[in-house]
Recover the amino acids of this structure.
């Protein structure tokens, strides 16, 4: 980090709390205005944060703006911040700079005061505090992490704002997720917490993509921001609840080196007074995580339901790539998919192969690694039917690299992004609605 102030800057101006709600306003230099949506940053919790120190209240917004600052060489100014988290940001910055040397420039955090916050010894409701928390969706990864840490009786934390938008159009999806997580928690006598934020509309995600998509494999938040971003959102709630450990389940595993914003060398650095974050189950492949789940099902929870669908939140459609992949993985771990939320029969093996061969799904490197993981297990497994034998035989020799979509973005998308990158902010602000409409139209037309 440079010790000389940058001409580009982001300032945290105001942090307000109202019961369970947090709101922050920022200002920034003109060159950075395009990266922010123009609305205050907001988070809502299920626990009062009125007594949380301001140095901890600053963590959620800093977790969103600092990666943007590092990508643009900007400095960040905040009146007060928890000293432990300030050091954590330096460690996370070092990882992102090494991960994305093509565009990450770094910056300096200037705090009016760094404070050594004392952890809460009592939860916000006066009851015994929760010693640990787990970001939880009910999918394979987070369910495996729950099983690994169930002796700690972790509070299950679900977040709205990334894969489920805070817009009214996603209310049903959020209701479905809350219902499933709450039922899972109730059946195991666990606490739950639900967090809602506007972090993606607070950031101008399309503009971040316009500038940096050419350097990352996915979206800005998935490739850069979501590790520190999601964990940082939890800081006021974790402080109020007295959480010493906060777990986030790994998506990838040791040996997979993909551009992804949640990794051990990011998440394990995130910490604040009284709380250490952990990137969990990185030592297990996805199939091995399903083995952990299978053992738990056989010993403790025969009716366990998983939720991984890309298309639905009120159950699994059974026909998207992720549903098929999970169903096959469950079978390889000795479970019947239909018992755990996935309609699946022998005829689906034929449909699955046809869809993969015909390129009906846009698959990335993540999916290639996951199908390779399944293939490794297939080579150790005796098929139980002719249909399974035929699919396993095909999978053993299939060129999984050919299933990955490595095509360049359509020329129209590249032109739109280039135009957005090179447009002065004042002009961009006027033209953005038209630019966004054109982008969406080109997507609908398949351009």
């Amino acid at each position: 980090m440079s010790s000389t102030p940058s001409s580009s800057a982001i300032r945290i101006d105001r942090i307000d709390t109202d019961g369970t709600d947090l709101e922050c306003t920022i200002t920034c230099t003109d060159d950075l205005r395009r990266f922010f949506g123009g609305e205050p940053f907001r988070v809502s919790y299920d626990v009062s944060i009125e007594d949380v120190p301001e140095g901890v209240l600053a963590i959620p917004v800093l977790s969103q703006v600092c990666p943007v600052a590092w990508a643009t060489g900007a400095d960040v100014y905040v009146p007060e911040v928890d000293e432990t988290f300030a050091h954590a940001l330096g460690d996370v910055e070092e990882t992102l700079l090494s991960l994305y040397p093509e565009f990450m420039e770094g910056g300096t955090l200037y705090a009016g005061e760094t404070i050594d916050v004392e952890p809460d010894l009592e939860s916000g409701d006066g009851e015994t505090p929760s010693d640990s928390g787990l970001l939880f969706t009910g999918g394979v990864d987070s369910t495996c992490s729950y099983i690994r840490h169930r002796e700690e009786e972790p509070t299950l934390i679900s977040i709205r704002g990334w894969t489920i938008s805070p817009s009214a159009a996603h209310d049903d999806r959020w209701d479905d997720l809350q219902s499933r997580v709450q039922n899972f928690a109730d059946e195991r006598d666990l606490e739950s917490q639900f967090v809602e934020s506007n972090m993606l509309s607070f950031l101008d995600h399309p503009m971040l993509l316009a500038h940096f998509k050419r350097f990352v494999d996915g979206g800005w938040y998935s490739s850069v921001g979501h590790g520190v971003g999601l964990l940082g959102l939890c800081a006021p709630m974790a402080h109020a609840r007295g959480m010493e450990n906060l777990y986030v389940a790994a998506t990838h595993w040791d040996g997979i080196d993909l551009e992804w914003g949640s990794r051990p060398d990011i998440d394990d650095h995130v910490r604040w007074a009284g709380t250490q974050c952990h990137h969990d189950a990185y030592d297990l492949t996805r199939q091995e995580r399903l083995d952990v789940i299978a053992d738990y099902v056989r010993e403790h929870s025969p009716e366990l339901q998983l939720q991984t669908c890309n298309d639905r939140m009120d159950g699994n459609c059974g026909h998207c790539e992720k549903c098929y992949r999970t169903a096959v993985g469950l079978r390889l771990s000795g479970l019947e998919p239909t018992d755990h939320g996935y309609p699946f029969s022998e005829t689906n093996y034929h449909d699955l192969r046809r869809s993969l061969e015909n390129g009906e799904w846009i698959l990335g490197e993540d999916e290639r690694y996951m199908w390779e993981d399944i293939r490794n297990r297939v080579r150790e497994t005796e098929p139980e039917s002719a249909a399974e034998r035929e699919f396993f035989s095909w999978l053993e020799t299939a060129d999984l690299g050919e299933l990955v979509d490595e095509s360049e973005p359509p020329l129209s998308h590249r032109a739109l992004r280039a135009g957005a990158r090179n447009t002065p902010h004042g002009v961009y602000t006027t033209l953005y609605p038209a630019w966004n409409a054109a982008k969406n139209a080109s997507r609908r037309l398949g351009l």
In short: The CA atoms of residues 367 and 404 lie 8 Å apart.
